[in-house]
Every structure is written in C-alpha cells, then in structure tokens.
Design goal:
alpha+beta, about 160 residues, Molybdenum cofactor biosynthesis protein MoaE, 5-stranded mixed β-sheet, 3 helices, Mopterin_biosynth_MoaE, 5-stranded antiparallel β-sheet, MoaE_sf
Length: about 160
Amino acid sequence: MATVSVDLLRGELGQKGVFRAAIADSPIDVSALEHWALTPECGALVTFRGVVRNHDHGRGVTAMKYESHPRASVFLERLVSQVAASHQVRVAAVHRTGALAIGDVALVVAIAAAHRKEAFAVCDQLVDLIKAEVPIWKHQAFENGQSEWVSECGADRPEGDRL
C-alpha cells in the first residue's frame, strides 16, 4: 500500500503561518509530516495521531471505514490555513479515508511553533475543529455483528457553511 508523501500535500504560505493539508486513501507518513513542519525557528513540535482502537463505548470494534464528502479537502484546507495564520505556526494535517485496521493511523496533526504551550494548545484546537467541521464519517463494525455511522461534523456549523 502506498504512503501519503508530504510532496503530494497542498501547502501554502498563509498570512502568518504555513500549512499542508490532505485527505488520503493510503497510509500517512507521519515522520515526513513532522520533518516538513519542523524548522530551525521552531522550538516545539507536537504531533497527534488518531489511531483506530478496538472498542467504542464498551463494544468491541472489528473494522473501521472512513468516507469523506467530495469537498472535505476544501474544509480541511480552510481550517488548517486559518489556524496556521492566526497562530503563526506551521501545520500539517492529513485524514485517512477507506478501510482501516485496528491500530492504523486515521488522522495526523503536526504543529511546529516557537514554544511548547502554543504547539500543544493549537494541536488540541485543530483536532477538535477537524472532527467538528470536516465532512468525514466513520463506519464502525462491532463484534456482535452490528455497525454504525459516526460523525460530529456540522453539529454547530452556521447554515451558510453547510454542505
């Protein structure tokens, strides 16, 4: 299976920050994202890896599949660009789609900043924004044969920003 290369990500110089963002259907090269994000000006690098776990609310998970809206990358790029510009940080964010196994990385957010507190805070904020705003849904299959679709996307989105 191919790995998402940092070269394939769209990246732009924001007003005050730099970002790369992508929706990917292959494994994410976390090291490449971290390497891209970290520069000599940065004293901190915080990376979040959202990993497929084997349980959810007390039920055993056996399989996971992520599906995205065709415009999901637009939403992701907008969020990442805004965060990079408003906090003067370097941001890389990639979300997987397709079938993932237990232990696979579904989301990576890497934040490089001058100081650790800012990097931690921005990473936490961006992960929450991605879950709430980027139209990606997960389909979980459980040990008991049941399954469900899950998404937080759009719960608090203003009507003008809805898909």
